[in-house]
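In this supplementary section we document a worked example of the pipeline. Step one takes a protein sequence of length 83 as its only input; no multiple sequence alignment statistics are reported here. Step two produces a three-dimensional model, which step three serialises into structure tokens for compact storage. The input and output of this example are shown verbatim.
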Amino acid sequence: MNKTEMIETINGFLIEEFEVDGDTITPEANLKDTLGLDSLDYVDLVVTVEMNFKVKLGEADFVGIASFQDFYDLIENKIKAKG
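The serialised model returned by step three reads:
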């Protein structure tokens, strides 16, 4: 899976899971504000990512994650580290 496919997959499940307009998801947009995330939503987000990409995410992974680009980079790095 290349980066473009990864981003399309992420955006697809974010749109479906969090019922947001796809036009609001841009690399520079704020992840939390755009998706309206609360603590339970983060759990849903982690589970969805783990199911789609077979990587583990922890609370510490979200430190410093503000934009969608930050989130994309996190997932990409997790996939690369997995091997």
